[in-house]
Amino acid sequence: MKYLAYLKTLKTCPFCEEDPTRSLLENENAYLTYSLAPYHKYHLLVIPKRHVEKLKDLKWHEQVSITALLYVGIKALDALGHDDCSIVAKDNFKTIPHLHYHIIPGGEIEDISLDTEMRSLLTKTETINLTKELEKQLSIFKK
Length: 143
What we know:
- By secondary structure, the chain is of the alpha+beta class.
- It has one domain: HIT family, subunit A (2-Layer Sandwich).
- It contains 3 helices and 5 strands, in the order H-E-E-E-H-E-E-H.
- A 5-stranded antiparallel sheet has the order 1-2-3-5-4.
- A hairpin with a 3-residue loop joins strand 1 and strand 2.
- The protein is globular, with a radius of gyration of 14 Å.
- The termini are far apart.
């Protein structure tokens, strides 16, 4: 399914109704997951649990929790052989109006807002394989 078609099916915020099967790691205020419509195979997301649309509306403790998960995501990507990444948080135009941070392997990214019609959702098989790979790298951070 194309990402744009998926977005049209949404009735509520998909980040507020967190799917526990997609959460790779979480803390009190945020969770780390993979992108359903990735720009890169290992495209990760860090999402605050509270519905927040703007960076300025985050509380300090939420930002601390988000930063901790960004660090973990970067370390996991490094273990998978990606020693550089881009972190993107759009404060204005977002396809989903819930603040979220992209961790995208690779040093250069193009304008990621132009790609909505072309991106496809991961297949079930891709999701299962990706989750196994990521959980192996994240296991050292789980209690």
